[in-house]
Amino acid sequence: MKRRYYRYQFNGFKETRDSITFYDLNDIVSMDKSPHRDSIKVKKGHVIIRQRENLGIVAIEIEDLTLSNGQDSLISNLSCVLTSKNKIELSEFSDYGVFKEKSTAPNNGYSK
Which residues of 50-63 are buried (b: 16+ CB within 10 A; e: fewer)? Predict the structure, then answer.
């Protein structure tokens, strides 16, 4: 099984009904040293957008597993984490085909 991990910063994105393309990439960490990419296009469905309260979006994660035909074995496992060079809001992405996860601070007190 081949495991691939990529971490990029992006400057902009374009969303269609079935995909998201991220532009102007900076490679931060990659496990395999492939040629420089200016953009990356991903299918919706494997996209998780993580947000923290008052910080906007902190990470966009893409997990893509490839299984062999007719067998229960994993051929490849791709993980990609994207962060924006600029602050972006969750509302800039549609609700179609992406999972939006919002993390809030724990409620440690209750006042009457």
Answer: bbeeeeebeebebe
